[in-house]
Design brief:
The protein has 234 residues and is α+β, with helices and mostly antiparallel strands. The chain contains 6 helices and 14 strands. Strand 12 and strand 13 form a beta hairpin. The longest helix is centred in the N-terminal third of the chain and has 10 residues. Bound molecules: S-adenosylmethionine (SAM). S-adenosylmethionine (SAM) binds next to loops.
């Protein structure tokens, strides 16, 4: 292993670091969250393979979401219990949060891996039940439609029916389980949907502005559902 000091301050936008980027095969890092959009654009511009940590909120950014929709980037296959992503830490690290099978792990709330490296988890389809069985055995009531989208509300990922042909709104946690062979991501229902979604997609979604939707959030019974992803079976 060889190393040397940088000439400049290490700003990723500097010519010196851009040159290093261009020489690299893969970039693995924890970039400054405040510059997440710029850093991602820098990776894409360099046509690099990458695995980076970001804040889950970055998923909704208008610069990030279209890349996820188009399967150009996706979430990593990290240890994810649905609430947190767990990062393995060195054995001598004191501030770890749990130990499993002799390995120490810590989490940083609200963070997740973003990558364009393929992995096996994203090719495992979710096991799902039929709409009829979900209603009969779990929810005991039919699925409800949003007031401002031509889509039904799915409150939990495991309640996605396997035989519904229309558009479904699912929680953001879906993206950690998404297999592109199983579902098409149409768009997101969030505060920037009206401004950022192409017109033909808004039409496909049957979007009708609602006075309380803050620019495109999915409305159900007068209340906005936080961060929904709009999907359809393939
Ligand atoms: C989330 S921290 C991660 C630090 C380190 N990779 C780690 O895992 O401990 C982000 C780092 O990016 C650095 N940073 C901020 N702006 C930068 C820029 N324009 N170019 C390069 N690095 C930057 C910060 O100083 C900080 O050390």
């Amino acid at each position: 292993l060889e190393w040397s000091y940088l000439e400049g301050d290490g700003d990723f936008m500097s010519d010196e670091v851009i040159k290093l980027r261009d020489e690299s095969d893969i970039i693995i890092t924890n970039p400054p969250f405040s510059l997440f959009r710029e850093f991602l654009a820098w990776l894409i511009e360099g046509k690099k393979k990458f695995v980076i940590i970001g804040n889950m909120n970055s998923i909704n950014y208008k610069e990030v979401f279209p890349l996820i929709k188009n399967n150009e980037i996706w979430l990593g296959a990290g240890k994810n219990d649905g609430r947190n992503v767990w990062y393995q830490v060195p054995d001598d690290y004191k501030d770890f949060h749990k130990e499993e099978n002799g390995k120490k792990y810590a989490f940083v709330a609200g963070t997740i891996w973003f990558t364009n490296l393929d992995h096996g988890r994203r090719h495992q389809p979710l096991p799902l039940m039929s709409e009829k069985d979900i209603i009969k055995f779990v929810t005991k009531k039919p699925f409800e439609s949003y007031e401002n989208y031509n889509a039904i509300e799915i409150p939990k990922v495991k309640l996605i029916p396997d035989d519904y042909d229309g558009i479904m709104g699912v929680p953001i946690s879906f993206l950690s389980k998404h297999a592109p062979e199983q579902f098409e991501i149409i768009w997101q229902a969030s505060g920037n949907t009206k401004a950022s979604a192409p017109k033909e997609i808004l039409k496909e979604l049957g979007y009708k502005a609602h006075p309380k939707d803050k620019g495109g959030g999915a409305m159900l019974n007068g209340k906005m559902k936080f961060g929904r992803i709009l999907i359809r079976h393939k």
